[in-house]
Amino acid sequence: MSAEVLDGKRIAKEIQAEIKQRVATFVETHHFAPALAAVLVGDDPASQVYVRNKERACERAGIKSQLHRMPADSTTDEVLEKVRQLNEDPEVSGILVQLPLPREVDTQVVLDAVSPLKDVDAFHPRNVGLISQGRPQFLPCTPHGIIQMLKRYQIHTQGKNVVIVGRSDIVGKPMALMLANRDIGLGPEMANATVTICHSQTSDLGAVTQQADILIAAIGQPKFITGDMVKLGAVVVDVGINRTDDGLVGDVDYNDVVPVASYVTPVPGGVGPLTVTMLLENTLSAAGLQLAAVGS
Ligand code: NDP
Question: 150-185 in b/e burial notation, b at 16+ Cβ within 10 A?
Answer without folding.
Answer: bbeeebbbeebbbbbbbbeebbbbbbbbbbbbeebe
